[in-house]
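Hypothesis: this fold can be encoded by more than one sequence.
Test: take the structure tokens below, design a sequence, compare later.
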């Protein structure tokens, strides 16, 4: 292990605190959301690998925009743990982004043996998902969803198609009944949109406690049942926080991956034209979006426990260090063929806190099936506005459209399978 993360050849004069590198860049603004890659280019040019940013007004953090540095940090949980407890005591408890980053007793916000216990339970529960059944769920659920708008000739496929379909399939996988699911959906949307912490946590916690109680009393073949029955012996409180993580990761990111991929496929001739051969498949578009515009663009947050020197920059103790997966994946110094083989893409993170492999498979398959079903039903679908007129939701973490309006020839409702 390298001492203090110091670079070879670094001199005392070349080392500086991150806060002295220049003005902090707000990554929560509408301006950043409208052109994040323009900001990433500026960051690389003016700051280098580590960038002083604000994730909310008055809330400082460091954004990592160099691929090699990100991999190094993500694979060193000893110096860069994921537990935000100490940092959390230093900031206002009611900042709207707190539900996305606060301490929770679950697999994403803990370190060491506690994290190992939670991650094992989560991975084992997810491993029981039958991907073939996911395909069947998407197909049977997509038809009634498409039938709600197919005769109109236009729709916002983000809110009218992708959201209800992704949420329904995910709830089926978790064994979550529709009434509890609707309560969770409202709280999840509020979490990503920065509604006050107390309201989000109360609404989410109550719904997921009810789901936990239901599955303890009426077990089934689903993720929640496998969690409550896991040898880790999760308490009700621990169950709630594992489920918070599952819903946060299992709905909003796939939803935005689907919308962002559809946007690419409707505006890039490689996916719309067969002039030079067969159009590229959906799986290729998904892979490209994960590399260039992943739905969680800036996340994988860690909190060094002591001042830490990396890339000749001193990072302060107990202040968020955020990986920009979007910036790192598009780092001009990166050569994927020479880095991590097929695992080079940081959209699912790396190291101890990387997205479990079964969740990655689920997310990719879900996105592909949801998109392919829509294109099978409405093959002449196209964007209803110029791509430059689309609006991206502001926020420090996600890459998400406000809506994705499309038009298509009106068609009669499709028969149920």
């Amino acid at each position: 292990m390298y001492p203090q993360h110091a670079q070879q050849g670094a001199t005392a004069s070349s080392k500086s605190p991150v806060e002295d590198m220049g003005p902090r860049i707000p990554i929560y603004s509408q301006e950043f959301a409208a052109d994040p890659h323009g900001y990433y280019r500026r960051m690389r040019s003016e700051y280098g690998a580590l960038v002083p940013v604000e994730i909310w007004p008055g809330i400082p953090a460091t954004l990592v925009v160099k691929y090699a540095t990100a991999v190094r940090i993500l694979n060193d949980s000893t110096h860069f743990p994921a537990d935000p407890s100490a940092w959390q005591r230093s900031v206002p408890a009611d900042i709207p982004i707190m539900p996305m980053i606060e301490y929770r007793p679950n697999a994403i916000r803990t370190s060491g043996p506690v994290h190992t216990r939670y991650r094992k339970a989560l991975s084992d529960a997810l491993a029981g998902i039958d991907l073939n059944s996911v395909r069947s769920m998407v197909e049977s659920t997509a038809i009634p969803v498409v039938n709600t708008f197919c005769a109109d000739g236009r729709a916002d496929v983000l809110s009218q198609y992708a959201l209800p379909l992704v949420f329904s399939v995910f709830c089926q996988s978790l064994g979550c009944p529709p009434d509890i699911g609707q309560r969770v959906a409202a709280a999840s949307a509020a979490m990503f949109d920065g509604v006050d912490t107390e309201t989000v946590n109360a609404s989410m916690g109550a719904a997921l406690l009810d789901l936990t109680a239901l599955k303890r009393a009426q077990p089934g073949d689903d993720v929640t049942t496998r969690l409550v029955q896991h040898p880790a012996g999760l308490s009700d409180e621990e169950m709630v926080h594992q489920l918070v993580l599952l819903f946060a990761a299992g709905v909003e990111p796939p939803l935005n991956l689907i919308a962002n991929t559809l946007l690419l496929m409707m505006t890039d001739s490689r996916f719309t034209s067969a002039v030079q051969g067969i159009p590229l498949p959906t799986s290729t578009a998904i892979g490209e979006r994960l590399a260039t515009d992943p739905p969680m663009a800036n996340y994988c947050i860690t909190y060094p426990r002591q001042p830490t020197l990396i890339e000749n920059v001193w990072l302060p103790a107990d202040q968020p260090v955020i990986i920009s997966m979007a910036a790192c994946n598009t780092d001009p110094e990166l050569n994927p063929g020479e880095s991590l083989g097929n695992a080079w893409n940081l959209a699912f993170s790396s190291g101890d806190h990387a997205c479990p492999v079964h969740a990655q498979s689920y997310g990719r398959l879900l996105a592909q099936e949801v998109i392919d079903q829509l294109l099978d039903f409405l093959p002449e679908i196209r964007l209803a506005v110029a791509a430059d007129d689309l609006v991206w939701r502001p926020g420090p973490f996600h890459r998400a459209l406000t809506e994705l309006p499309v038009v298509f020839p009106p068609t009669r409702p499709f028969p149920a399978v």
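The longest helix spans residues 197-217. DSSP finds 17 helices and eleven strands in the chain.
Hypothesis status: open.
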